[in-house]
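Here is one chain, start to finish.
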Amino acid sequence: MLKEGDIAPEFCLEGIDEEGREGRFCLRDLLSSPLILYFYPKDDTPGCTQEACDFRDNMSLLKSKGYNVVGISPDSIQSHKKFRQKHGLTFPLLSDPEKIVAKSYGAYGKKMMYGKETEGMIRSTFLISQEGRILKAMYNVKAKGHVEALLRVLDR
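Its structure:
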């Protein structure tokens, strides 16, 4: 697992930008300002939709604090396009079908789900400085209220 001060693992993934255009996105290019990088399990599921819409609804506040937002899940670019369009999402969504990037961030692995151990995406959020350092690593976050909690962290 990553911790404060670690160098954020570099990556390049296919995805869509805030306007739905396809492209290749690399961490180094996303760091024009500090970044909120969040990993989520699946497009258009209840928890993931709530979290994405909370980011959307708080985007102007997050940007006023200097942060951009990028979401990563194993879903396809087509799935991301539908998810973005259906919910009016205003930030890039990247596709990590092999979960290589998620694993490098510790956002994929063993977790408890309904009292059973399983392997899957671990809902996680990382604050990354423009220099590519982890400012905050948050694992096993709850979808509901997560963005609100994140805003409290940014206010410190």
